[in-house]
Design a protein that fits this description.
alpha+beta
């Protein structure tokens, strides 16, 4: 079971490990904008967001499709993505335009670097006012 939990976390399905709260209906996606390189974490509610796909001429659910548009906080460019699931909600494939999927670790490292850079940048700005002068 530990191996499956590690695989779920690696694929962005969250889980109790790492502070995702253990929400069984949640899937976390980590996306980087290809234009501005900003990273975004998106929570998907697997119980409500994917749309059902039906068999030809029938009422049998054969799969699910998630269509979502993500907007980052830097360039505000829409990043559409599609994820396909089988009838048991197991991921079958994913596509993204204008962005790339990243791992949770890459997301956390980018956010940590941004936080350190922002803190260091504001400290340097206060002590090195001549650096910002033209």
């Amino acid at each position: 079971m530990g191996v499956w939990d590690a695989i779920k976390v690696a694929l962005g399905f969250g889980g109790a490990a790492g502070g995702e709260g253990g929400d069984r209906n949640a899937m976390y996606l980590y996306v980087r904008c290809t234009r501005c390189k900003d990273v975004v974490r998106v929570r998907v509610n697997l119980a409500n967001e994917p749309a059902q796909e039906f068999a030809e001429g029938g009422d049998t659910v054969i799969g699910y499709t998630l269509n979502k548009t993500i907007v980052d906080s830097k360039c505000f460019r829409p990043i559409p993505l599609t994820i396909r699931f089988d009838g048991r909600r197991r991921e079958q494939g994913r596509e993204i335009e204008g962005g790339e999927f990243v791992t949770r670790e890459e997301y956390e490292a980018t956010v940590a670097a941004r936080t350190r850079g922002g803190g260091a940048g504001s400290g340097e700005s206060g002590s090195g006012g001549s650096e910002t002068s033209p």
